[in-house]
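Human: If only I could read backbone structure tokens as easily as an amino acid sequence. Underneath my words sits a plain record pairing an amino acid chain with its backbone structure tokens. Take your time, and here it is.
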Amino acid sequence: MSTFVDIHVIQSVPPSCVNRDDSGSPKSALYGGVRRLRVSSQSWKRATRLYFNDRLDASDVGVRTKRVVETLATRIAEQAPDLSGSAAGLAEEVFKAAKIKLSAPRSRKDAPLESGYLLFLSTSQVSRLAGLAIASSREGKALDAKAVKKVFKETNSVDIALFGRMVADDTDLNVDAACQVAHAISTHAADNEYDFFTAVDDEKNRSEEEDAGAGMMGTIEFSSATMYRYATVNMDMLVENLGSGEAALHALEVFVQGFCLSMPTGKQNTFANYTLPEAIVISVRDDQPISLVGAFEKPVHANEDTGYLTASLEALSAHARTIEDNYGLRPRAGLVVSLQNSDAVAALGERVSFADLSGRVRDAVAPLVISEEQGS
């Protein structure tokens, strides 16, 4: 029996452009035959990782970069200042031992070698790899490849355990993601709009000989919508990636907070789109993850008094009940944080405050995680 934690969020996003495509337009998708505003899963996962960086100890987060040699060399020099002159070479030997290919960066002349793709390393792993490199140099021995690979497989950070790691050169060093995040889509049809703007040249504006015309002008494409967001956490995988049930429960608490409160930062200075979820629904399951996006395959319509939010919550609640009635798949526990009070909200689970949410999720999941850990 596996344990899954499904997180459903209904959130209103005002005029903004939090996630752009290659032409600068807000991302969109066709669903149910109509165009929706879309925010990619990659964008919201990065926002969640940045939330981790601000709130977790440095030892619990990782760094995802091609500049792995530079990162490791810096740590070697910090731990052994007398080896700072050879730190880059020692770092290169570490990645060669792990069979990770390195190459010269294209845009930075004379810079340290880089990996061919973004590589996710935890702070603890970087420190331990630096220790191996220093010991190898002190002893005058070649690096032990098995010891290097062992470090890659241990002491994963919270973000690596949740979002995984891909190592194209050696799949044995991969970490399977314990968390999956869906692309967020609007619960209704949503079109992009254009903001024509001008910016006044202050000095020109002060001159009596000049007109008060704009110093520059342009357009910004934006959209607004009520969105459905969904993520699911495989607790068994999270325990495996972090090595203990207690560490996994801590990571789950942080993820619930980070996923719910984070916001991608695209054009944030322009739109200040700092909103919080209208409703958060968490389902603890022992059957399978279930997205409720089907509630919005038929787009909801705005009510002039309640907008899209009430209609979205009602559709979400009705779809959840329909699934339970027809498939018999019911969550072991359901918790709801909502700014609204309605029969639809009451039907989605027990009302709790956001301050209590993470702890209540932990209480619901802990018996399942700990019992499986003890039985393994």
The longest strand covers residues 214-234. The CA atoms of residues 195 and 220 lie 5 Å apart. The mean pLDDT is 93. The two ends are 12 Å apart (CA to CA).
